[in-house]
Amino acid sequence: MIKKLLQYYEAWMVTVVAILMSLLAVNNREESTWSAFGTHFIQYLGIVTPMIVLLVVRANTLDSKRAHQLWLAAYILYGGTCYVILQTIYYQNAYLIGTILVSIATGIVNGLYNYFFSEKQTKPWWQINFNTFLLIIMCLFALLMAMMSISSEGNPAYDSQERLLIGPVIDGKKILFGFPGFIGYFVQYFTLYWFGYAFFYINQKLLIPILFKQRGLFVYTAGVFGTIMICYPLMAQIAKWMPLDKRLGGIFAASPFDIENGFIAFIIMLFSLPVIWVMDWLQQRHQITILQKQQAETELNLLKQQINPHFFFNTLNNLYALSLTQAKQTPAKIQQLSELMRYVIYQSQSPTVPITAEITYLEDYLSLQSIRKHHPVDISFEKDIDDDQYQIAPLLLVILLENAIKHGIEPSTQESFVDLVLTVKNNNLTFVCTNSVETNPTSHSRGIGLENLARRLQLLYPGNHSLETGYTNNTFTATIKIFAHAIKSIDHR
């Protein structure tokens, strides 16, 4: 139940924003009651409900293209439109507008993080690291704060002789005609954010790896306080020289040596510690994931190598037996074998192939096997496919057919049969292979062929497949099922 709820984490983030804005709104009222909080929360939650609904639908979709469209619809289309309307009609309700604005900002930051740091994301040459990501976020927030600051100027709701309050408003005309002031705000905000980033960087690159990991907690704590004592007066002095401090009513203490300025640096150091630990852990986990993936790919290749020689050995024996009789169909069968070899050597190297390619392979395989029939064999192959482009890992289905022929048909001294039923419906695949056997196959039903198949399925479709075998009344049945939500996982291999 909890895992299901956490699946909708984006919708929960928007809900938390509504709660935060409700708390801020109540704190600025003379009457702080549960009734007032509930009124604000219902109002703010109502305005973001369409966004929450879109994000819930997004969490349940398997199509990545549709998921991107829903993200754009939630944050950009609805959020942007709602912000413009609210700023026009309810421009005095700063917390209502802030709910939309903060929700959009949260979604964009989360989207950027998922894009750059997702474990499924392949790493191109331009992919950034976490520190660069932080600098980009700092730049975006500096731009946002600069736009809201220049837009709040001259607005009686936010601008007074004592100080400028930064309201959740963005006025394109003020930004355009007051562009030098906008740039001035941006440079000052970015400088302040950079001061905070500098403490984070020192903690990440020097204090934790050198002092904490090598010298222990006491030396690390001393290093933290030493760094703060050296740096904060200089940074506070630079911040006091900025026009922004006076414009906002004095956000820093009057003296650069005031301990309050150092307290800000201490908070950054304190909160950066778990962030750095988490990033180190994520990096280690990512490296382990890469090693596991490489190991799985190596194992898959070895399993394929075990399958292919077994098939070609049997097929060459069949052609040898056919050539001894100087049958006319020998050249055609050799050509058919050539097509199978081309499939195995080239197409099977792809992560997935269309289901039609696998079907053609099965049909050619059956045609080659038919040359060794020394007794009546009834072979049927039923197909019910609703998507010819359904993707499947190559050389999976043929293993059940090989197993049926090796343990059911070839040892048989009387009439036998092989029935194949392949169904693909709504991205769910079911392949059933039923064959006659003369003895109970318990002793060899899990030979190397089926063991390899079980392992490949586990590597390719972990938790999204089933392989079942059974024996009743001289009939052996093997069934493969691959479920719809397994399609996305194999595409990233």
UniProtKB/TrEMBL annotation:
InterPro entries from the UniProt entry: Bact_2-comp_sensor_kinase (IPR050640), HATPase_C_sf (IPR036890), Sig_transdc_His_kin_internal (IPR010559)
Keyword flag Transmembrane helix: yes
Example of a GO MF term: phosphorelay sensor kinase activity
Highest taxon, organism lineage: Bacteria
Coiled-coil portions: none
GO cellular component terms given for this protein: membrane
Limits of the Signal transduction histidine kinase internal region domain: 299-374
Keywords: Membrane, Transmembrane, Transmembrane helix
Residues that span the membrane, as ranges: 7-26, 41-58, 70-90, 96-116, 128-150, 175-196, 217-242, 262-282
Any Pfam family: His_kinase
Annotated protein name in UniProt: GHKL domain-containing protein
Organism: Chitinophaga skermanii
